[in-house]
């Protein structure tokens, strides 16, 4: 399957395959594999391939795939350090990743993805808010906290989802105006919003890379506001944090290390298999208070608590092994190369699309996403038809969005396999689809 990933159709239109009855008698591994390849595998997309530009979807490096195989074979429960070195491997891998992003003073743990990383960070923030008011939310419950102001310019949907799961509520989000023509928050307006709280502690969610245009909040300027106002700074750097790897773009994440909690998603730009992300925080004492797993048969927390005391899951796949393999095999330089090539690919695609005269950018390419729309009559119906037509070619896959009230299309580059030839091939398919609509 891996050897043909570059040639298989990038997207698959969903088709009904019919219901299967639970087998009473097994057919064996070989027959099961044959049945899968006949019935299911042809309906799967080429999302691991070099021309899948939907969402922010990385591929999986060969080393990380080997790590994933071994993760399943060894089947460690990375909750406790009582019977295995698995948790120490995870701690080391977290430290490596922290160094990549200037988070040496933070501790962290692997979780399933950006949503769970944001959830954990905001759960710790919730406990911090309670501490400012003289209560422990972990003990008394969220009802003792009252209304929680959450301020953000362009929060990702997983932030809002996490607030719902945490009982803080979707309605707690207060959108702060962004800079003109940008998705980055206006720091002066943020200061005004904080001042209006009259000393009440809040949560500020900042972005290190928005989904539509990979825009970055001024993290350093936001952090300085804590000298005047009490708030927890959570930074969603799911994929934008990887700007730290390139000298040309590292300034975009200046101040990331000042955050109280940080989300980094690894099955995006680190190119490890689903699912893998890391949550970082400066406040492990509060994290322990939230996720403490107390039972007579479990080891009590020490200065280095087991992960079962730090994250929602008790049963935990050793997600760190895929990242350990990839970082060991390719190092910081290898992953920097992936980031730089993907950024160049996004710029190349943007140049080719705009040169056609059929498409235009709705925002500059700031990192690894080209956000564009039809040059003529970019209605939601026509842009939707464009996206469908592109997918039908099987050559590439992009996703629709709305930016500044305008229907648009986004192509996100984060796969290690993508080459200049792949970009050219995708551009040709996109331009042909646009031409058919003109």
What does this protein look like?
- This protein folds into 2 domains: 63-326, Aspartate Aminotransferase, domain 2; 331-437, Alpha-Beta Complex (Aspartate Aminotransferase, domain 1), CATH 3.90.1150.170.
- The chain is built from 13 helices and 11 strands.
- The longest helix is centred in the C-terminal third of the chain and has 36 residues, at 320-355.
- With 438 residues, it is an alpha/beta fold.
- It is globular, with a radius of gyration of 23 Å.
- GO terms for molecular function: aromatic-L-amino-acid decarboxylase activity; pyridoxal phosphate binding; transaminase activity.
- Its cofactor is pyridoxal 5'-phosphate.
- Keywords: Aminotransferase, Decarboxylase, Lyase, Pyridoxal phosphate, Transferase.
- This is Aspartate aminotransferase family protein.
Short summary of the structure?
With 438 residues, this protein is an alpha/beta fold. Helix content is 38%, strand content 12%. It folds into two domains: 63-326, 3-Layer(aba) Sandwich (Aspartate Aminotransferase, domain 2), CATH 3.40.640.10; 331-437, Aspartate Aminotransferase, domain 1 (Alpha-Beta Complex).
């Amino acid at each position: 399957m891996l050897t043909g990933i570059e040639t298989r159709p990038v997207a698959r239109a969903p088709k009904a395959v019919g219901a299967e009855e639970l087998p009473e008698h097994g057919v064996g591994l070989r027959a099961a594999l044959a049945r899968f390849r006949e019935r299911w595998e042809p309906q799967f997309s080429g999302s691991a391939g070099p021309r899948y530009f939907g969402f922010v979807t990385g591929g999986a490096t060969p080393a990380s795939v080997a790590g994933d195989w071994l993760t399943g074979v060894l089947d460690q429960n990375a909750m406790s350090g009582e019977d295995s070195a698995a948790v120490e491997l995870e701690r080391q891998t977290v430290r490596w990743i922290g160094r990549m992003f200037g988070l040496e003073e933070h501790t962290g743990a692997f979780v399933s993805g950006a949503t769970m990383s944001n959830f954990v960070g905001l759960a710790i923030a919730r406990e911090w808010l309670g501490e400012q008011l003289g209560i422990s939310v972990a003990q008394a419950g969220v009802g003792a906290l009252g209304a929680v102001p959450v301020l953000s310019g362009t929060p990702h949907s997983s932030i809002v989802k996490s607030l719902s799961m945490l009982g803080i509520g979707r309605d707690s989000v207060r959108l702060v105006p962004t800079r003109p023509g940008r998705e980055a928050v206006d720091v002066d307006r943020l200061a005004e919003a904080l001042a209006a709280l009259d000393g009440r502690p809040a949560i500020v969610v900042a972005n290190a890379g928005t989904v539509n245009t990979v825009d970055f909040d001024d993290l350093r300027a936001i952090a300085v506001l804590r000298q005047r106002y009490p708030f927890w700074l959570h930074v969603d750097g799911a994929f934008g944090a990887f700007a730290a790897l390139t000298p040309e773009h590292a300034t975009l994440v200046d101040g990331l290390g000042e955050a109280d909690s940080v989300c980094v998603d690894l099955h995006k730009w680190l190119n490890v298999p689903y699912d893998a992300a890391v949550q970082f925080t400066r406040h492990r004492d509060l994290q322990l208070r939230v996720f403490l797993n107390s039972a007579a048969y479990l080891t009590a927390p020490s200065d280095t608590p087991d992960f079962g005391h730090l994250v929602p899951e008790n049963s935990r796949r050793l997600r760190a092994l895929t990242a350990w393999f990839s970082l060991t095999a390719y190092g910081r330089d290898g992953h920097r190369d992936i980031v730089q090539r993907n950024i160049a690919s996004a710029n190349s695609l943007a140049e080719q699309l705009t040169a056609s005269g059929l498409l235009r950018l709705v925002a500059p390419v700031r990192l690894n996403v080209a956000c564009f729309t039809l040059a003529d009559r970019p209605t939601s119906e026509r842009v939707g038809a464009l996206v469908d037509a592109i997918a039908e070619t099987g050559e590439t896959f992009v996703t629709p969005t709305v930016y500044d009230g305008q229907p648009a299309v986004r192509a996100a580059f984060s796969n290690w396999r993508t080459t200049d030839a792949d970009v050219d091939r995708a551009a040709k398919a996109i331009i042909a689809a646009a031409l058919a609509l003109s």
